[in-house]
Structure to design on (392 residues):
């Protein structure tokens, strides 16, 4: 399309930094939460390497770190974990809403609308202070697994369960979504789920976090910003990719079919879900971590089918496109192994990323400047308005 610009805007645009479609490479703000580096430093959450957090820490520690700014000591962590279970209760309005949701509703739509409703009945609804925003973030972290599990159980006529005080956040999430707890396999699954929650927690200005920050920059409430983020995460180019990857594995069905399936899809110029990244062109450090865990879980569960399909797809993508798997790719292997219902994969991502989103909303409002970029006008140049009775 030829670009016709008004003369004054054309001059204005010349004096501005270059236009970058999709804001690729643009620095859109400052953040102390996360460093995404393709080099030696790698991915850091508030300065801590992702590998150390994922392998030696727990998701609760990461959530605390993102929301409160420092790693908790033992007492802080125990209090935080105990309160997470205590606050995992849905208000009456949510029960009414979930009772009325059509069985055809997409779980991400339920999460988005559910979070919006939670904002109406939050005890701090009218308080937009920093302290209130931290309390709201904490409540959301506690309530989201219940929202997701309860809606899924109602639609599928399964008995409802409550989180247990003797289980960690990941163990409870696995229990709420799959009924599994306690045995050796369930423990191994919960450990890998914990790792995946840590890896999913934060990734600077990705599309959903950016959506949250843009919304927060109008100084609106935290729930409005989180509702924007959930809408953005739903898309298959972002959080929806983990579910799409699992659908692909099911469609491929066996390791023997994988190579032909991928080559045919590429010949049709289809995108293979779980590959590529806007920022990480040389590979995603998180992918190597979850791949190791997905492989070991496959061994523990005695079912290597999904892992073998995945490695075959990975091999062809490397050969054909030079593209690397992103975090969603091997996460789908792990979630298939855990028996998490597929439509809940992206909602599980929400249970983790809520920590990064909330930390960003708080950070944005601590140093706010309204986000209001410009557009490059591509419409017609100025033309005469013709009144309706004179129009052909
Ligand atoms: C994430 C994503 C949107 C980033 O895209 P981007 O930075 O805009 O990269 P581009 O769309 O410019 O792609 C560059 C090239 O790689 C190709 N490509 C990128 N991702 C691809 C994929 N998953 N499968 C096949 N080809 C892919 C594009 O077709 C393009 O090729 P071309 O130059 O021959 O047209 C993209 O890689 C994608 O769609 N991946 C699949 C969805 C996914 O896994 N999302 C989760 C992201 S964490």
């Amino acid at each position: 399309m030829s670009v016709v610009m008004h003369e004054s805007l054309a001059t204005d645009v010349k004096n501005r930094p270059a236009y970058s479609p999709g804001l690729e490479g643009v620095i859109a703000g400052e953040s102390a939460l996360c460093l995404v580096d393709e080099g030696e430093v790698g991915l850091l959450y508030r300065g801590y390497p992702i590998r150390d957090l994922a392998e030696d820490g727990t998701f609760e520690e990461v959530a605390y770190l993102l929301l409160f700014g420092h790693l908790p000591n033992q007492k802080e962590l125990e209090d935080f974990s105990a309160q997470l279970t205590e606050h995992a209760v849905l208000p009456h309005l949510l029960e009414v809403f979930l009772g009325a949701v059509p069985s055809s509703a997409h779980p991400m739509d339920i999460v988005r609308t559910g979070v919006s409703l939670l904002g109406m009945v939050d005890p701090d609804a009218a308080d937009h202070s920093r302290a209130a925003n931290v309390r709201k973030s904490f409540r959301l972290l506690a309530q989201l697994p219940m929202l997701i599990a309860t809606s899924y159980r109602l639609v599928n006529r399964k008995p409802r369960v409550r989180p247990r005080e003797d289980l960690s956040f990941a163990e409870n999430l696995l229990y709420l979504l799959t009924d599994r707890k306690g045995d050796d396999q369930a423990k191994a699954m919960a450990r890998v789920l914990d790792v995946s929650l840590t890896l999913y927690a934060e990734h600077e200005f990705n599309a959903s976090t950016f959506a949250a920050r843009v919304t927060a920059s109008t100084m609106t409430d935290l729930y409005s910003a989180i509702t924007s983020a959930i809408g953005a995460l739903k898309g298959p180019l972002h959080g929806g990719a983990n579910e799409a990857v699992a659908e692909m594995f099911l469609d491929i069905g066996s390791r023997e079919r994988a190579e032909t399936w991928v080559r045919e899809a590429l010949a049709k110029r289809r995108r293979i879900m779980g590959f590529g990244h806007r920022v990480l062109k040389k590979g995603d450090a998180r992918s190597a971590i979850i791949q190791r865990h997905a492989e070991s879980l496959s061994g523990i569960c005695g079912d290597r089918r999904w892992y073998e399909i995945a490695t075959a797809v990975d091999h062809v993508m490397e050969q054909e496109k030079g593209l690397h798997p992103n975090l969603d790719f091997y996460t789908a292997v792990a979630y298939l192994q855990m028996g998490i219902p597929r439509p809940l994969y992206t909602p599980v991502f929400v249970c983790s990323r809520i920590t990064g989103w909330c930390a960003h909303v708080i950070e944005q409002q601590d140093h706010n400047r309204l986000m209001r970029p410009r557009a490059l006008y591509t419409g017609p140049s100025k033309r005469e308005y013709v009144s309706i009775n004179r129009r052909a």
